[in-house]
Design brief:
Layout (H helix, E strand, L loop, with lengths): L4 E6 L9 H15 L2 E8 L21 E5 L4 H10 L3 H10 L10 H18 L9 E6 L6 H9 L3 E6 L7 H4 L5 H17 L2 E4 L2 H10 L8 E3 L6 H5 L11 E6 L9 H12 L8 E6 L4 H5 L6 H6 E4 L4 H9 L3 E5 L13 H8 L3 E4 L5 H8 L3 E4 L4 H15 L3 H4 L4 H4 L4 H15 L14 E2 L1
Length: 453
């Protein structure tokens, strides 16, 4: 008897789109498949998107996965033109007053129609009612994707799980700016309505769960899990042995700097250490790979000859190339500015960082979750982004350790790190899915055929 089930997995970011959100969705689908759960995925069509792609990720999509894509005009192309015209105020106004809760609200109707066709198609493909998707998991952000949950509930009588990678109205990126009260009130109404309709929730962190439950007490009665991002052991198994030079010190940052994440404090610390003669400008390099704007990344130091020499900006690279770059670094940079609710911020890259075994320069809230993981992994030094003296101390500590090989100076706590494997995280989601369906967890079974639409 076939004890596999099929679910609908709604994730706007999915391969070949690259980035942390896409990789999380891919890994969930990959390991759910091994646990007896097949997925039909609804996601964005990458064509025309102002977003990096990583085609290598497609090889990891399980054979039973059916992929349905919908197209959406990418507003960031328009925003890019406004930035060039120095109309930053207009981008901010549109983002906070018109395109709410996010830019993808403009394709809400297209996504809904695609969802309807998807379910019709699924019904025609399935030879029994047991094979039809029984539940949906909606990965957020963007929060506009959660509106599809209401459509599933009202039109198709299908339950859904909200999988929160980021908070919505309580998001730190919003709390630390002046956000319009009218927009916030409207989104609070939407958020409450969707949360009341969902059958279960997963949160990235315990702090996130408490934030939601403190605002919406009814959530305490719904099935929940805390599911962080993680690392995939299979990704690291394909890497070549690292080649780490002791003659130079290379700090690597993978990803984009945006909003409040502008690393001026690091550039100030490096500048002061060089002017004090404690490090030489040829001794240190900071390699940043991803979709970044040089003017934004360098900030106040855009005209500094020293920082322009130290900082090496590279374009977006594949996830596999990114992991190889990490494992060959002298140290890895984690950067999260402090502010309201930033203790709960947990960037996805941290888990690949700790699995790489390389030392981490963590410029993050010292009492936050990111700092906790860095410390307990045994791999890093921590300083607040406002603590220039502390950042300088951390840099010197790492540089001094370089002479005795940083891999000896830092001792990874592997028993702690292993809990963050993608397989463990997917197992938590699988248990939530079966709890919401009121079914026991089955044993994994055989393959199905892949279908892409």
């Amino acid at each position: 008897m076939n004890n596999r089930i099929r679910i609908l997995y709604i994730a706007y970011y999915f391969p070949p789109l690259g980035g942390v959100a896409s990789i999380r969705s891919l890994k969930m689908v990959k390991y759910l498949y091994r646990m007896g759960i097949d997925c039909s995925v609804l996601c964005l069509n990458p064509k025309g998107m102002n977003y990096p792609t990583d085609n290598e990720l497609l090889s990891q999509v399980p054979p039973s996965t059916r992929i349905y894509r919908f197209s959406c005009f990418d507003i960031t192309w328009l925003f890019k033109a406004f930035y060039l015209l120095k109309l930053t105020w207009l981008v901010r106004f549109l983002s906070q007053n018109l395109f709410i809760p996010d830019q993808y609200i403009i394709c809400r109707k297209v996504a809904a129609r695609t969802l309807d066709r998807l379910l019709d198609r699924e019904t025609s493909l399935c030879d029994s009612a047991e094979s039809v998707p029984k539940l949906a998991v909606i990965s957020s952000g963007p929060p506009s994707s959660l509106f599809l949950g209401l459509r599933l509930k009202q039109k198709h009588s299908m339950d859904f799980i909200c999988d929160f990678r980021d908070e919505w109205t309580n998001n730190p990126e919003r709390l630390n700016i002046s956000y319009p009260h009218r927009s916030q009130a409207k989104e609070l109404m939407w958020e409450a309505r969707i949360l009341a309709a969902c059958s279960g929730l997963s949160y990235l962190t315990e702090i996130m769960r408490k934030n939601f439950e403190n605002r919406y007490s009814f959530l305490k009665n719904k099935p929940t899990r805390e599911i962080q991002n993680g690392y995939d052991e299979e990704d690291f198994g394909h890497l070549k042995p690292p080649k780490i030079s002791l003659d130079s010190f290379t700090i690597v940052y993978t990803g984009s700097f945006y909003d409040r994440r502008q690393p001026d404090s690091l550039w100030q610390a490096i500048s002061e250490l060089c002017s004090e003669g404690k490090i030489q400008e040829d001794q240190i390099r900071v390699h940043i790979t991803g979709k970044n704007n040089k003017g934004f990344v360098l900030g106040r130091y855009a005209n500094s000859a020293l920082i322009n020499k130290v900082v090496v900006l590279k374009p977006f690279i594949s996830h596999a190339e990114s992991l190889e770059m990490m494992t060959n670094a002298s140290a890895l940079l984690l950067y999260i500015p402090s502010g309201k609710n930033t203790q709960s911020v947990l960037t996805g890259k941290i888990f690949d960082y700790i699995r790489s075994g390389r030392p981490i320069l963590a410029i993050v809230p010292p009492e936050g979750l990111a700092a906790k993981i860095v410390k307990e992994s045994g791999l890093g030094v921590v300083a607040d982004h406002m603590d220039i003296r502390g950042i300088k101390h951390c840099l010197l500590k790492l540089l001094c350790s370089q002479t005795t090989d940083l891999s000896q100076a830092m001792k990874p706590n592997w028993s702690y790190i292993e809990q963050y494997s993608r397989e463990n995280q997917a197992a938590k989601l699988a248990s939530l899915i079966y709890q919401c369906l009121d079914l026991p967890l089955p044993n994994p079974t055989s393959d199905s055929q892949a279908v892409t639409e």
